[in-house]
Amino acid sequence: MAARLRSAGALTVAVIVVTVLIAGATFAAMTRGDDDTAGRLLQRRTSQVTAAVQAEVKRYVDAVTTVAAATGAHDVLTEAKFQQLSAPLAEMRLSGATAVSYLLPVADDQIAAAQALWRSRGAVGLRLQPVGSGEHIFAMMVRSLDQAPATRTGVDATQSQPLLDTLRTAHDTGQPAVSEPYRLVVDQSVPAPLRQLSFTMAAPVLGLPGRSGEREFRGWVVMGLRSEDFLGTVLPNLSDGLRGVSLLTAAEERVPNVASHPRGGAGDPGMTRFGTVQVADRTWYLRIDASRRDLIGSTALPRVVAVAVLALGFVLAALVHVLATGQARARRAVLQATADLAAAETRAREQAFLLTTILDAMSDGVGVVDDSGDFLLHNPAARSMLGIAEDRNGAENWQAHYGMFLPDGSGPFPTERLPLVRALAGEQCDLVDMLIRNDTHPDGIMISVSARPIRLRGGLAAAVAVFHDVTARRADTAAIEAARDELAAQKDYLTQVLDALQITVITCDTGGMLVHTNATGGARVGQPSLSGRHINEVSVGITVTDLEGHVIEPDDMPVPRVLRGADDVRLEAMIRFATGKTRAVVLNAQPLLDRTGARIGAVGSSYDITALREREADLAAFAGVAAHDLRAPLMVVAGYADLLQQDLADGVAPESMLPTMARIRVGVHRMQQLIDDLLAYATARDARINLQPVDLQAVVADIIAERTTHLRIAGRGSAPPPRFRVGPLPVVAADASMIRQVFDNLIGNALKYTRAGEAARVDIDAHHPGGDPAAVCVTIADRGIGIPAEEQPHVFDQFHRVAAHTKAYTGTGLGLAICKRVLERHEGTIRAADNPGGGTRMIITLPYAGLPLPDAADTGRPAALPLS
Asked: How far is CA 797 from the centre of its chain?
C-alpha cells in the first residue's frame, strides 16, 4: 500500500508542476505585451514633455537676449530706460523667474565713481558693496519678476562662484550662458524645506558695431530661474498618467535631481525614459517616470488567466490524487474512526469519574430526576441533608418520605410547589426555602433549593436540583435583623432624647458634612433639616464673636478645630442672628472615634447662657455698687476704730473695751476683704487685658516674700513657719496685675487651709502639658486639709465654700471664682485635684510666651525657697 501511495503522490505532483509551468508561461506572455504597449506610450509622452520644456526654455533665453540687445543699443542707459526695456518680461508670465538685473564690472579704484555715475542715472538708492578686492561685478539695476519685494541692488556677484562662471562664459563667447544649479543669494533667508535649486541665465550687453565692426562690451543682463517653480508651471497639463518628471544635469540614474514634479520624486516608478533639452550653452536632461498601470490602466486579465489555469490544474491534480488513493484513504478513515471512538470512550469514562468525584466532594446537595419522578442521582451531601438513605420515586411520595415542610413548620410542603416538580414542568426556581424534619433531623433543618429543567440524551425531559443547608445562616440573619431592629429602636430613643434636650447637638463626618442635628439645633437656626449640609453653611447669616467682640471665623469654631486634630474645645461666645437677635452661648466640641481610636468625625453642642450671663451681670453690677457704696462708710468705721485703739493704748479708755475693739477691727478687716473680692470679681470679667511677658518666677518670689515678711519680723510664737519649694517657672504672656492676683489667691489659700499647729508646705512646679510647646502647666500643691472629691468641680463657682471649712476658716467664696474668670480671659484653665499624701493641687494652664523653661541651675535661683 505504501508503494501505491508513493505512485499516486508522484503523479499528483507531476500534474501540479505542469499546471504551474503553463500558468506562468501564459502570465509572462500576456504581461510582456502590456509592457511593450506601455513603453511605446511612455516614449510618446517623453517626446511631448521634452518638446514643451524646450519651447518654454527657449522663450526664457530669448527674453533675456532681447533685453540685453535692447540695453546695448542705448549709449546712455538710465534706470528709467532699463525699467522700460525690461517691462515686457513682467507680462510674459515667466514662471520661476525671480528678477532681471543689469550687472556691470567695476575695478576697486572705480567703485565710488561708478556709484555716483549710476546714482546720477536714476539708481538713487544704489550702494555698491564690494566683497574682497580685485574684480567686482555689481547689480546696478533690478526688476523683480516674482512679486517679491524689490531685489537689493549693489550686490557683488563675485561672491557666488556659479554666477561668476556663467558671467565669464557669456563675456568670453558673446552668447547667452546658463549656470550650474545653485541656491540664489536672495533665497538664503527662505526656510530650508522651501528652498529650491535655481539657474541663472546671463546674456552679454554689447554696444552697436563701430567702424571696425567690433561691438563694445557693456555688462550683462541676468535673470534668475527657480527650477521647481519652472517645472511646476510647464508640466501640470502634460504629466497626467506620469509618476513624475525630474530635471537632471546628466542622463544617469545616480545623478541627484535638480527639480522634480511633483516635488519630492515619484517613489518606485517601474518605467523610466530620458529626454534632452538644450538651454543656451548647456544641455538639460529630463527623466520621465511612470508605471504600466498609470499608462495603460490596471488589467487583471493575465492574473485571471493564470489563476484559472492554476485552478483547473489543481482540480485535475485533486481528482488524480482522489482516484489514486481512494482505497487507502478509506482504510485510514476506518482506523482513525476506531481510534477516535476508543479515545472518546476513555475521555467519557474519565469525565464520568471526574464528575462523580466532584459531586461526592461537594458540600451542596445535588439531585436529578427523570420525567416520571424517578431519582437518577443523589450525591452524598444530598443524602446527608435529607437524612434518608433510600430514595422514594414518584413526586407524590417525596413530602412524606423525606419530611418536607413549609419554612415556618406550619404544614407539609405542597407537592405542586416542590422545586423539582416545577422544574419538570419547565419552570426555573431559585432559593426556595423548606424545612426537613424526620427521624434523622427531629429538630428540623432549613435548606434552600434551586432547580432547573434539563434534557437527557434522546431528548428525554429531566430536572436537577441543588440545595444547601441554611439553618445557621437563617439563624444569623434572624439575629442580625433583631439586632438591627434593636439598633433602630435605640437610635429612635436617643433621637427623642436629643430632641427633648434644650441643648443644640450636632454630629459631622471628617469632611465637615452634618450627619445628625437634634430638633433644638434645627430650630435655633430656623432650618429643621440640616443633615447632608456642610457645617459652614449652617453659619451663613450668623456672626459669632468672642467676649471681647472679636469675630470668630467659621474655621476657628470648636467643631472645625476638632476636625483639624484638636481634642476637646470649649469657648464662650456671642451669636448675632440675621434677625439682629444676640445670644450668649457656650460652644463645645470633641472628636468621635471608632473602635480602633481613629477619628471619624466630631460631635458639637451648644447651650444658651444668655439669662445666666444677664443674672451674673446684674450680680456683678450689684456687687460693684455695693462695694463702692460700702467702702466709704467702712473707711469711717475703720478710722474711728483706729482712734479708739490709740486711746486704749494711751490709757484714755478703760481696758475692758479692748476685746470689743479687737472684734470691731476684725469685722472691719473681713468687710474690707469682702468688698475687695467683690470688686475683683466684678472687674475680672470685663477689665481690659494688657498682655505682656510676665516672669512667673519673679511674681511667685514676690508674693512669697510679701506673705511671709511679717512673720520673719514679728514671729509667730509656737506656730512653725511655712516652707516653700519653687521649681523653675517660665515667662508667660499675661496681664501682670491679673496673673499676680491669681497666684496670690492660690498661695494664700495654700497657707490658710493648714491644720492648726502644722507648718504649711507649698510646692510650685511648671511643665509643658502633654508635650505641647504652646502652653505651660503650673501646679501649686499643699499639704493642708484638702478638698473633698465631690466638691472639687464646684469650688470655682461664685460664693461657693466647702461646708466642712465654713466654720473653721473665714472667706468670701470668691477667691477661686476670680482665679477661674481671670484664667478664662487668658484662654487658660484651672482645676483642683487631690495631692498624693494629703492636701490639694491647683493645676492651671496658660499660653506660653515662647521662652524655654529655665533650669534652676541656669537661673541661679534655689530649687526651694524655705522660710527660715
From this structure: 54
